[in-house]
Amino acid sequence: MSSYRIRSLALSLIVAFAVASTFTRADSSSASDAPPDRGRFVMPFGFDPDTHERLLSFEDQFDEEDGGFDGQSADSQRLSAKPEPEKAWLLEPGTFNRLSSAGQRAALLFNGRLHTRGTSRPLVAPGGEVSAEAAAGDNIRVNNPALDTTFHTHSETSIAVNGSNIIVSFNEFSFDGYSISSDGGNTFTHKRIPTPSSGSNLGDGVVSLGPNGELYYATLARVPGTGTGTKSIIGVAKSTDNGATFSQPVDASTTASNNNDFQDKEWVAVDRNPTSPNKGNVYVSWSDFRSPSSNGNSITLARSTNSGASFGAPVVLSPQDGSQSVQGSMPVVAPNGDLYVVFRDSHSAIGGMGVVKSTDGGVSFSAERSVAHLSGLSSLTGGGGVRTNSFPSAAVDSAGNLYVVFGAFTTGQTVDRGDVYSTRSTDGGVTFSTPIKINDDITNTSQIFPSVAVASDGTIGVKWWDRRNDPINDSLTDVYMATSTNGGASFRKNFRVTNHNWTFAPIEIGFASGYHGDYDGIAADGANF
To answer: How much is the pTM?
Structure first.
């Protein structure tokens, strides 16, 4: 039996936490049969259920005299509450409901609906670390609650791993949070990326590793536009010191940005393949919502061929037909340098999930092909209505096979609240297999937010949020995982990753309804997840 070390991310309403756990690839029932830990869900709430006072969970204590916080962008730009009339169209229900979670926050901000509570205070942390050393199986908090100066909601984690160095990005008070670990995930230091010049970051952070160990952090942002207005951009910051510092974000959306349109839901990928002719290229895809809303939206991509110093003109990848039918794109790179961009597409001709492919380093792309027909998810019970989605997560193995996972309703089911599916292409994205269900529970509970990664030996790992341990209320949530060792033809027995489950607290004032994030990442490094 082979042992693997999980470095996965799960995110609750209040606390971002990583998982450091060793598991075997044998079909053991010990993990999946773990007790559900009912009653321990004070951790994600962050509030005492009796007194309603805020709690510092995991028994951590923070002393404001224990040292300073060394983030690079500690609230350098206060977010203005002044409405921008040219952004009012973002609040139209048809548009607002299609924006990402961070995009909805940004829309409220642009329209003067997002107000901070109180003023900023000095940011402090206990020597920079937020967790004691982890034991195998522990869930390790990566954010520092002492830095929650105006609100406490955290969401949308992504992760990149390079040996013992780990970086986790997440939305937090300043929208631009991340934590780094240099000891394999035992301890983390909470930081923030810089803001753009004269601008501010808006969240949806995603991190990706470059071929020489450099890190890229993509985020929604805003900068001064023409006249007195501002414009929405996609920013990409870079670190060459394992995340200790980052550059100011560079504008990756360039000519796609203006005072009226809105750039949303970005993802970043880097060509790390040693034999690829495009090694080092940085690719960023996102959703461009055009004003007025009748102009629709499209999936757009830009590339950098100079290690993120600048980005070329954006390329539109999806139909421009006036509809708002596409969202949630993810670029992934094959070993030979081929670039795939997978995205949610509700056009009837595509049926739910589409993909385009570039064989010339992002200069041009194929026509869109259908990945899967699906019935998409939109909301769950709990916490004022938990918003979810059927956005894809994708990965490519060393043979060039493409794997796509997503959450969806099972065809013909009337009571099951959602399942996790996987499909694969072994012919370069021309055709895809019939999706197979990964979760093996026998409940009607929700399974959402899957993400996929491939280890160096070809093992495929998929993790997701899962409510099987609360079949009556469909509320208590865990992270589960499954692996495949036969190229995604089937998956082994599910096992539980979290040692605490959680439920969802009510939405904080100033956030969009159902705000709990849109994704939750996993990464592979060598033979480890």
So the answer is: 0.86
